[in-house]
Write the structure tokens for this entry.
Amino acid sequence: MNADAAHSFYATDATGHNINPQSLRFAPPNRKSQIPNSQFPIPNSQFPIPNSQFPIPKKMSLSLTDLLSLTCNSLLGNPLRSALTTVGVFMGVAAVSATLQVGNISRAVIAEKLAKRSAPQAYVGPDWDPVSFESLQLRLEDLEFLKQRLTKARAISSLDWAGATDTIFQGQKGNPFMMAVTQDFWVTSGKQLVAGRFFTPADFANYRPVVILDKFIADRLFKSTNPIGQRIYVNSRPYIVVGIVPTNTNREQEPQGQLFIPMSVYNSLTGSREIGSLLIRPHTIQDIEQVGNQAKKLLEQRFPGKKFYVGNNIEEILAQQQTLEMVSRSLLAVGMISLLVGGVGIANITIASVAERTREIGLRRAIGATQQEVMLQFILEAVLLSLFGGIAAIVTVHVLTVFVADTFKLPYKFDSGTAVLALGSALLVGVGAGFLPARKASQLDPVKALRSD
């Protein structure tokens, strides 16, 4: 080898001295290199790498329309499973909606029955003594005694039945029943005026011979004449008509008519201070039994050894209401169980869908789909299934309820609040059932998901 070749064989440092490769090859591992990095500069200008040729991938972002389209395509990809899940939701929402409709109709029926009767009231009076054939006579002082102690009573009055009367107006005759009442009778009875006025405190205090007729006897006596201010004769005594009230209808017998006079006037005619039985109207229907029992207990304390009866005019209606409420609660429990079963179906289909589409999830995650987008897709699938099944159930129940109500003459009116409640419960169950599987799908490792079978 000549000198030039030998010179070219060896590398030189910056000072021109040769570097023996053997010294580099057999150098100890912990020996620092004798060649400083600055002696082999590699300027960036010699190896340009433009960023525009290698862009950094950005995260993909799906619009709501694309996400909805992707969700629908996924559900339509397995129509049988989607349909069966929708049927499960349909049954649950139908049971809940039907239960709520039963409750609405039952409350409407109870309201109609209450409207056909006088105001809800409890009545209390002394029992008849079978030995002495006598009963205790209550007086106005006893009424005031109860009025001061019954805090849940809206009003307390008394009613004393005076029997049938001979009533005459200019040759027209009738035989209405006479009722002597105290001042708050119109509140406890709930009667409304057709014409005229109720009794005033001055009527009671001044013993005025005034009378209020029901519409049946007023029409019979006066025909087309205005009865207000007219003088009639009741058992040969003159009275001035001051008011007209509606007639209480009774399907079992024809109406005979009623007339009402102030209790003070009736007591002055009979010479007795008895006021008959007591009528108590509570603030709420729920308090009617409690008010009646409390009044009975107070009177028994006031009159030791005496017995009193107690009752109310809506006892059978309250019993029906309690029965219907119990049935409604039972049906609601069944409906909620059915709805939960539908929710289990949604959870199952979401779990199966995640297992079947693991590679698809991995691919979407690999190309930039976010965890939120993956989770939102599966939750949206659960929402759509719940929405379709819920709407179908509400429409079906409404149509059937209209048919049943028309057939059996039941009061029914579509309640949007009931529909919203039933549909909202379906959506809540659907989202709750699909949340955990959807969250699990969003947390899959893209690499492991792509490698799965």
Summary: The chain has 15 helices and 14 strands. The mean pLDDT is 83. The chain has two domains: 64-112+319-451, 122-313. Residues 122-313 form one domain.
